[in-house]
Every structure is written in C-alpha cells, then in structure tokens.
Amino acid sequence: MTKLAGVFPVLPTPFTPDDAVDAAAFRRLIDFAVESGADGVVYPGMASEVETLSAAERGRMVAALGAHLAGRLPFIVGASHADPAESAARAREGMAAGAVAAMIMAPPQAGQDVERQVAFFAAVAAAAPGLVIMLQNAPAPNGAALSPEAVAAVAAGVPAIRYVKEETLPCGQHVTRILAAARGGPDGGLDGVMGGAGARFVLDELARGANGTMPALELADAHAALWRAWSAADRAEARRIYTATLPLLLLQMTFRVRATKEVLRRRGLLENTAARAAGPKLDEGDLAELGALIATAAPCLTLHPPA
C-alpha cells in the first residue's frame, strides 16, 4: 500500500429535516472532497457525529462511501469502540467497503497503561487480519491522552499500527516526540503521524515532520492548496492560506459540526444543517460572525464560492 499522506478531511454526516441520514447529500460531500484535491477521506469520526449513529446507519454510510468513491481516493474508516471485538468488526466492515486503514482511538478505559493499550490494539488486529491501524490519540475524556512516548511504545508493540493521528496539546511538540521515540522502535518507526485538532496547528505540525492533516470538510480545497504549497516548499503561500482560514477554524472549535455544516450550506454543498451532536448552537450573532470569517477565508476557497 502506498503510504498515506496529505489532507484527509473527516466527512460529516448530513441529515434530512426529519432526522434521517441523507445518503444523497453525503454523496455530494464525497464529490466535493474529490474535486477539492484532498488526498483521501475519513469516515466516520467525531466530526461525523459518530456517537449519534446507529450501527445500521453507520454500516450503510460506510458502504455508500466505498461504492461512491469507487477508488477515486483512499479512505480510512473510523472503527473506535471500547470493546476490541466491536472495533475489529467495524474495521472489517470498512475493509469490505474498500478502506485502506482503520482509525481507532486509544481507549480511555485502558488509561495510560501501555501494556493494556497494547493488549487492546493487538486484539483488534488479531480479529481483523491484514488491518492497517491508525492510532488516534485524543484528549480526555474521549481519548486516553497518551504521552508521545507511550504512543510510540504502543505502536512498537502492535505491528499493525502504522500511523498515528495526534490531537493532544501541544500537538506540534507531540509530533516531534512521537517521531523521535518511534525511530528507536524495532521496525525503525511509523509510516506517518498526522495532525488533527481541526488543522488549527497544521503548519507547526508539518514543520515538525507530520505527513498530513485530518481536518473537517468545509475548507477542504483551501487545506489541499496549503498542503500542495508546503510540499512545493512555498512556505509563504502555505502561511497565507493558514492565516486566512485560521479565524474560521477557531470559531469551528466551539460550534464544531454545526459550524462545519453552516459553512457547507453557504458554499451550496449542503441544504440542511441539522445536527444530532450535543453542543452549543449558533445564534444570530454567531452566524453574522461566521459570515465575516468566511469572507476572510474566501480568497482561498477556489471551489463553490460562499454566498
């Protein structure tokens, strides 16, 4: 398998006005990711409101993703679960749909204990032969918030773990430390560490050796352009895009998927912005501020100009 690198946005889950999963809208979002120049996609993740999806909904959407992508981009299936057997089942479901890897969150119930973490991931790998795992290290309470050295030790103990998505703060420092610790491992290190945290620290992560980023979808074209500029050693252009988009990402940090969906609506990519996830809703003042921040980012949004 070609090593995974670049921009892999996490796709949101669109809903109809009556709260059903909207497969037609989902296909439009997949097409946007492809045309934006993204290097791959991730589904489902926290930005997909995964905690609100039933097993049946989740399975249908993963299958729909694989069928609609039809090999145009690689995709990583989210397969986190407290039970390693359930996590493996979700990974196999993704692999059957064409996923090249499974992103699995370090389980908080295993705590900071490296041996318990290794046992968990080893059980997942044993139940899903051939699985490539991306260990997602997220802050508490959702994740285990492993130290960088613990992340590297868990990866060293489970050969199926080839990638890490690092989201604990300070993200940049942790990328440096994971890569340094992993280089001393038995196989010479990981295939890559990707940044998360909504791409709010993406330049620092890339400067420290991250091989990509996994933001939400609404700015996929801008993030793809930033990655291309960085890869071409055009640091000034990468910085320009980052500076223009960061204020909008800061607002998204508070309102999460609701902000993502509203930006997608204003870009003509989504009709209904309903969300199931818990969290604050945008009021009139927030919507006005979001509009101003979209205008700041607009020169970097090359597709579907925002209304």
Oligomer: single chain
Which structural class matches the secondary elements?
alpha/beta
The residue fraction in helices comes out at 40-55%
What is the H/E string? EHEHEHEHEHEHEHEHHHH
What topology does this entry show?
Elements: E1 6-7, H1 23-35, E2 41-43, H2 55-69, E3 75-78, H3 84-97, E4 101-105, H4 114-127, E5 133-137, H5 148-157, E6 161-166, H6 171-182, E7 192-195, H7 202-207, E8 212-213, H8 220-231, H9 235-255, H10 257-266, H11 284-297
Parallel strand pairs: 1-8, 2-3, 3-4, 4-5, 5-6, 6-7
Helix pairs in contact: 1-2, 2-3, 3-4, 4-5, 5-6, 8-9, 9-10, 9-11
What are the defining features of this structure?
alpha/beta, TIM Barrel, 46% helix, six-stranded parallel β-sheet
Describe the model.
There is one protein chain. The chain is an alpha/beta fold. It has a domain at 6-219: Aldolase class I (TIM Barrel, Alpha-Beta Barrel), CATH 3.20.20.70. Helices cover 46% and strands 10% of the residues. It contains 11 helices and 8 strands. It has helices spanning 23-35, 55-69, 84-97, 114-127, 148-157, 171-182, 202-207, 220-231, 235-255, 257-266, 284-297, and strands at 6-7, 41-43, 75-78, 101-105, 133-137, 161-166, 192-195, 212-213. It has a 6-stranded parallel β-sheet. Helix 1 (23-35) packs across helix 2 (55-69), helix 3 crosses helix 4 and helix 9 packs across helix 10 (257-266). It is globular and about 50 Å long. The N and C termini lie far apart (40 Å). The model has no long low-confidence stretch (mean pLDDT 96).
